[in-house]
Amino acid sequence: MTTLSTAGPTTPAIPPIPATAAPTPDTRLSQEIRVAGMVWERELIRYTRNRTRIVSGLMQPVLFLFVLGYGMGSLVGSTGGFDFRKFVFPGVVAMSVVMTAMFSAISIVWDREFGFLREMLVAPVSRMALVLGKTAGGATVAAAQGTIMLVLAPLVGVRLTPLLVVEVIALELLMAVMTTTFGVFVASRIQKMEAFQVVMQMLLMPMLFLSGALFPLNNLPKWLTVITRINPVTYAVAPLRQVVFAAQDMTPAAQARFAAGVTVFGHTLPIVVDVGIVVAFSLVFFGLAVRGLSRTE
Amino acid sequence: MTSLDIRSPGPAAGGGRPPAVEVRGLTKHYGDLVAVKEIDFSVAQGEVFAFLGPNGAGKSTTIKMLCTLAHPTSGRAVVAGYDVVSRAKAVRRHIGLVFQEQTLDDQLTAEENLRFHAVLYGVPHDQVDQRITKVMDLVALSDRRKDLVSTYSGGMARRLEIARGMLHTPRVLFLDEPTIGLDPQTRALMWEDVLRLRQEEGVTIFLTTHYMDEAEYADRIAIIDHGVIVALDTPDALKALVGADTVALETADDDAALASLKRAGYTAERTEGGLTAFVADQEAAVGPLVAAVGVPVRTVRAHRPTLDDVFLHFTGREIREQHADAIPMFARAHGARRR
């Protein structure tokens, strides 16, 4: 062990402390962006490396599409050639986006459990850059997952146009941003892995089922109407369905029966308002997520 | 007590350079509990400084305050030239941290983990690759660079974390119980890494440990107990404080041997089953001592006070050993005799 003993007290010639220039606001901003980009990249690496996650993320919505679509479809019947499968398709795409985004965001709980969250939180970077990167990452993988679902469109007779695909991807991204920021906020408050399952059951499932993804929100009992109108996901599902329906041939009767938009006090909200509400929720959740992460470490 | 003379520079202290860590009256309360009580010390640049104490003595609390992860109740600490309270972010930029628990993403490769860290700590673009190559070489993991961390053993992961801690060229590397849960060979490897880092990068190393044998690697040791530093000096000086080296002999005729030794000017006494001579340096003394005995010698055992003796002396109890199996390796590494 001579190498060890010679490395003792007297040996090393210590270089002087290098002079480090204080970062200017400009370099600080580009540094924050670089960090957000890295967090985003990690999210993508983890997503693409985890094949089972991609497949299982597809299985559940596919199950809903076919089980519900055919099962309920025979019960509901069709109006002017428009059936329940076509109605539920955009909802199932939305479900897949929301679940993927939520899963991506809530992986912070895993990061906490396995320590990597600490590596991020002790670094000299702002929480905002971390949440921004996480949101961008969650949105990207969720929109990707939702877009993969579009290959099922011909199977249920939903017509796709290039414009529609672009619109759908844009709305998926928006929906995913809201879900991810919400998920990060929730995850920042969860300290234990066990709580994760509970949150998924108590929050995610009701939010999906009561969003209009699987059934029209008209003519519901009053209490249920109130709950669905409070649910942020409702305002993300409606525009997606509206743009999909706009590209289909629908009779007025079918439009009335399978309503796409959200009605509030008898008025159907235009897409712009829905989108505005989703953006507002996203900003609030983003702020809460940054604050939630700042409380730890 | 000379060991508390905190102003005496460490052995590796360079002429007039500001200390890497400077602590004055640092205190941390958790409610009614006083975790750390008015501790003072300073660590010179390039020094390997160990905080030694049992679990719950205040080691982790101190290291957390120095790394800006816990807010001091009172007192002051300056790390790498920055105040830990008012310049917390500057401190974090200039320190490396290796925690007790693993903080790697095992779904990423080693290189991806390091790249992530490089970005977090603002390592300039054009230097990232070069630094990754350098630190992977330093911990001898270059051939595993592209492998997923999930394929790493515990020891490799720990060494990768040390490499990562060094990636952004910190001035001070903090290691909180770095070898906990590692097998003896891995510990020895890790220490080689750490000392190589110090030599090549001139980094100051601050570590906490509750392993005596590990503290031997440090230039200076602070023994902390109940939130107070009870002793602070080089390992040798601490041992010298506790008592002299001894050589225990068993001879054919112990009485005659004792008489001979006393005639030769040694301080010695009869002990159970033999006699014990008190000497300045046990290793150098054995030869002349045996020659001076004058009767056939059956056994010779030289003993130098260990850090266990030191710890016992200052705290009145033995340090809790949780991984006693690790000790023989370190004992061998230092040529110390078995107890």
List the topology elements.
The complex is a heterodimer of chains A (297) and B (339).
Chain A: H1 2-6, H2 25-49, H3 51-76, H4 84-113, H5 116-121, H6 127-149, H7 153-156, H8 162-189, H9 193-209, H10 222-230, H11 232-246, H12 252-257, E1 263-264, E2 267-268, H13 271-294
Antiparallel strand pairs in A: 1-2
Helix pairs in contact in A: 2-6, 3-4, 4-6, 4-8, 4-9, 4-11, 6-8, 6-13, 8-11, 8-13, 11-13
Chain B: E1 21-30, E2 33-43, E3 48-52, H1 59-66, E4 74-79, E5 82-83, H2 88-93, E6 95-98, H3 110-120, H4 125-138, H5 154-166, E7 172-176, H6 184-201, E8 204-209, H7 212-215, E9 220-225, E10 228-233, H8 235-242, E11 245-251, H9 254-263, E12 267-271, E13 274-279, H10 282-293, E14 297-303, H11 307-315, H12 327-333
Parallel strand pairs in B: 3-8, 3-9, 6-7, 7-8
Antiparallel strand pairs in B: 1-2, 1-4, 4-5, 9-10, 11-13, 11-14, 12-13
Helix pairs in contact in B: 3-4, 4-5, 5-6, 8-11
In short:
The complex is a heterodimer of chains A (297) and B (339). By secondary structure, chain A is mainly alpha-helical.
